[in-house]
Amino acid sequence: METVTPYNNNDSKKDQVAQMFNNIAYRYDFLNSLLSLGIHKGWRRKCVQLISEKNPKNLLDVATGTADFAIECMKLNPTSVIGIDISEGMMKFGREKIEKLNLHHKISLQYGDAETCDLPSNSIDAITVGFGVRNFQNLEKGLQNMNRILKPGGQICILEFSTPRKFPMKQFYKFHFKYITPTLGKLFSKDSSAYTYLPESIKVFPDNERFIEILEKTGYCKATFQSVSFGLAAIYLAEKK
Fold first, then answer.
1. Which long-range contacts (CB under 8 A, 24 or more apart) does 187-191 make?
2. How far apart are alpha carbons 132 and 96 in whole angstroms?
3. Which of 91, 94, 99, 202 has the highest CB neighbour count under 10 A?
4. What domains does the chain contain, in order, with CATH numbers?
5. What pLDDT, on the 0 to 100 scale, is given for residue 146?
6. pLDDT(131) > 90
7. What is the pLDDT, as a whole number, of residue 74?
């Protein structure tokens, strides 16, 4: 898998990604809604519906960012949700949301990443990852460690961008990410690298069937995916053996 980084300097991908999200944190939610026209909210709702069938009580939200996925998981009436992220800047805004919604007794955010998270083995009922696996320093290592943390039979639900294959979404996608996304990103976030990194990282990500193969290789079973919004993103669902 080809490695793409935001700034193309000598820092690790992890450090570059953390810097990028710290830089754009103050505009992240605004730009996310603007660029996606709000449809990402429906994608997260679908993910939560999928994992609701097993009634998970202890959840981990990896790459939690501003905590939207963790907050959406409150619909499951969980005992606890732990959100981890490598960007303190993003979590600052996430904690503000959690406090405002009076959810601090259920949701806790802490620094961490999928590869090195040291939660106990077999301790979590379900793991969610929203738009985060593309940014892992080591994709397989991160998936393996999350598998370790899951209880047997526990589920992982990953929401990630994909590359549309069919007309007209394929053409719209190329135009949007070549012209609209970088322009709006530079205009509103003042960090043009972040919004040129986005399409490049999607382009090299092994999506759909290729990602299913990686999930199975890293110890998961019953791995499936479903495309959403004509292939703009995909939802991956798998279980720990």
1. 188/27, 188/30, 188/31, 188/34, 189/23, 189/24, 189/27, 189/31, 190/23, 191/20, 191/23, 191/24
2. 21
3. 94
4. 13-240 (3.40.50.150)
5. 98
6. yes
7. 98
